[in-house]
Design goal:
Blueprint lengths: L7 H22 L2 E4 L19 H4 L10 E4 L2 E4 L7 E4 L9 E5 L5 E4 L7 E4 L2 E6 L2 E3 L18 E4 L2 E6 L2 E3 L10 E4 L2 E6 L2 E3 L6 E4 L1 E7 L2 E3 L21 E5 L2 E2 L2 E3 L2 E3 L3 E7 L11 E3 L2 E3 L7 E5 L10 E13 L6 E4 L2 E12 L7 E4 L13 E10 L6 E3 L6 E10 L5 E3 L4
Parallel strand pairs: 1-2, 2-5, 3-6, 4-7, 5-8, 6-9, 7-10, 8-11, 9-12, 10-13, 11-14, 12-15, 13-16, 14-17, 15-18, 16-19, 17-20, 17-21, 18-22, 19-23, 21-24, 22-25, 23-26, 24-27, 25-27, 26-28, 27-29, 28-30, 29-31, 30-32, 31-33, 32-34
Length: 420
């Protein structure tokens, strides 16, 4: 028998009032603050006419923090100005209570870096949104060469989670170091969206020991690229650069609807197992490499040790085009990998050698054994390559499934044990 509570209506009304009050209190805490190159920390920061001056002052608990927005007014900020650079630390925000750092007018607030530290740094923080900034570093050669490879990135996200960086322009990481424009380190659930990157020598973006990093609608062009006279580490070649997004390693990460243009490539999926992160479950979707001029358009790479931890696994490359490649390497190369799927893939060659799709054993013996290696290649076209359209090194992949493959004007159509 059901018993009706006499006070249920009063209780429901009371509960509604409490919930409404809490919702209002939460929204009331949100505030918008302003910063400008001609501001002052003695201002209240609450309007464009009373902006703060320095990022260290503005980005702190009790000012622009979780739930609030910091708006950058037009102008030039950075290391050689009173504003300083952005160095956000320990902002542990939550979903629905994010900290937003945004330009009043997209890309008209420019932050210059010094070549030794990150221009925009997010460290041990969560639920952060960065929108519309123009940030750059500069070439800085350390007086002591032993200090090279340290710093000089444009945007760095380190030991953080749930970070969004969108509508930004990144330019000139320190080309005298092993530096990148967007550097995601030991982090999870990071989205890079609708960004542009120029004048770099290593990678436009890197996911290092990270998980669930998505790079979406990103455009990257290295412009002048590397200058081996100031940095030659990693086999730098003048005027060229690395990947649009390097996964080193990056688990369950995605490159989506992005463009790599010029002397670079789309992605390397590098199974270093650094930080015990598997190079697994990652995808390259709906992306283009125009006139790829450096290395393999996509490189699925085993690394360091002969075991499955150091083998790329469960990789999907779908709806990708390598157009007018001039690099002389493969459109897609997969070395000692497990369950690599390449489908709806197109490669066209402009000059020189190179293969369309290449499967091989890692020459150092790293990664999976031939008995463990597997790949599927289907619904794909290779045209005008100086090498084979499709190549499988003899004695490599134990399982290879193919269908609807077309090879035109390649030399030859296929080679090795392809299709056998």
């Amino acid at each position: 028998m059901l018993h009706k509570c006499r006070n249920s209506h009063k209780f429901s009304s009371f509960l509604f009032v409490i919930i409404s009050f809490l919702a209002f209190a939460g929204s009331a805490q949100a505030a918008t603050y302003y910063i400008a190159p001609n501001g002052s920390n003695s201002n209240n920061g609450t309007s464009p006419s009373t902006p703060w001056l320095t990022f260290d002052y503005a980005l702190s608990s009790g000012r622009a923090w979780c739930g609030n927005t910091l708006v950058l007014l037009d102008g030039e900020y950075g290391y050689n100005r009173s504003t300083g650079m952005i160095n956000l630390q320990n902002a542990n925000c939550t979903a629905g209570n994010e900290l937003r750092i945004t330009a009043q007018n997209q890309r008209r607030a420019r932050i210059d870096g010094d070549g030794t530290a990150s221009t925009v740094r997010i460290y041990r923080s969560s639920y952060i949104i960065v929108d519309g900034l123009y940030a750059r570093s500069r070439d800085y050669v350390y007086p002591n060469p032993a200090d090279a490879r340290i710093g000089g990135e444009v945007f760095t996200v380190r030991e953080s989670n749930h970070v969004v960086i969108r509508n930004t322009l990144g330019y000139n990481p320190n080309r005298a170091n092993n530096s990148h424009i967007w550097f995601i380190v030991d982090s999870q659930d990071v989205l890079l969206e609708d960004n542009e990157g120029y004048y770099f020598h290593r990678h436009c973006a890197m996911g290092f020991k990270s998980e669930r990093v998505t790079v979406r609608r990103q455009y990257c062009h290295p412009r002048a690229g590397a200058d081996p006279s100031i940095y030659s580490g990693g086999g730098m070649i003048r005027g060229k650069a690395g990947a649009l997004f390097s996964m080193y390693p990056c688990k369950d990460c995605i490159v989506e609807n992005s463009v790599a243009d010029g002397n670079m490539f789309i992605s390397e999926m590098n199974a270093t197992y650094n930080g015990n992160i598997l190079m697994s479950g990652s995808k390259v979707l709906g992306s283009i490499c125009l006139t790829c001029g450096h290395g393999n358009g996509l490189y699925v790479s085993s690394r360091n040790e002969p075991d499955l931890n150091h083998a790329p696994q469960n990789i999907l490359i779908e709806n990708v085009a390598i157009v007018d490649t001039v690099s002389g390497s493969a459109g897609v190369r997969a070395s000692s990998s497990v369950n690599v799927v390449v489908q709806n893939f197109t490669v066209t060659g402009a000059a020189g050698g190179g293969t369309g799709v290449s499967l091989d054993n890692n020459p150092r013996g790293d990664g999976a054994t031939p008995a463990q290696q597997s790949a599927t290649v289907r619904d794909s076209v290779v045209q005008g390559m100086g090498g084979a359209g499709f190549n499988q090194e003899s004695g490599s992949y134990n399982t290879l499934v193919t269908s609807n493959l077309y090879s035109y004007n390649n030399r030859p159509a296929s080679s090795g044990s392809w299709g056998s």
